[in-house]
Design goal:
182 residues, alpha/beta, 6 helices, globular
């Protein structure tokens, strides 16, 4: 479901068992966060996929109120990676993921950089799995709006095979619909 903060979307979310939800009206505004969280609490569905413009700030506030609507999340995005130049890229990614620690069923996550990142190593994926043992796919993307119009962003996708080894591949930039439909 693509959620828009209108009476129809609110009624649909509260009356139908929605499993996959995307909305881009919400960021860190407290009132918007509270409104969507309240609608998710009243939803009869078990949410498995959630995509918000900046999930890190939004979800941290919502989980602090009540983890229940989010306990079944398997796939989430977009988590903005915060840049602290005094830290390594790995530390920046792991710090940005701290709000997601309560989500023990995570299998997929999209991380968004607002700068050109260093190449990601499999060791980072392994470190992320220490907090999220079910994690099997990680998408590292670069924000389109951070670059010139002729920049062709790519997504680096890391997938864990059955043996537990991580393999990275480059591909086109995926949008939220690509993630929801997987």
């Amino acid at each position: 479901m693509t959620y828009i903060d209108d009476s129809f979307s609110r009624a649909l979310l509260r009356s139908r068992p929605i499993k996959r939800l995307a909305t881009f009206q919400y960021g860190s505004r407290a009132s918007a966060t509270r409104d969507l969280h309240e609608n998710l609490e009243k939803s009869p569905g078990e949410l498995t996929h959630l995509f918000v413009k900046d999930l890190r700030q939004w979800l941290e506030k919502s989980i602090a109120v009540n983890l229940e609507p989010y306990r079944n999340l398997q796939s989430v995005g977009c988590v903005a990676v915060l840049l602290d130049r005094a830290k390594t890229q790995e530390e920046n990614v792991l710090n940005s993921m701290k709000p997601l620690i309560p989500l023990q069923r995570l299998e997929e996550i999209e991380l968004m950089y607002h700068w050109e990142p260093e190449p990601v190593a499999a060791v980072l994926c392994e470190r992320m799995c220490q907090k999220h043992p079910r994690l099997r796919r990680i998408f590292f993307s670069v924000d389109l709006f951070s670059h010139s119009p002729d920049y062709a962003p790519k997504t680096m996708t890391w997938e864990r095979d059955k043996a537990g080894l991580w393999k990275g591949t480059r591909g086109p930039l995926l949008n939220w619909w690509d993630y929801i439909c997987q």
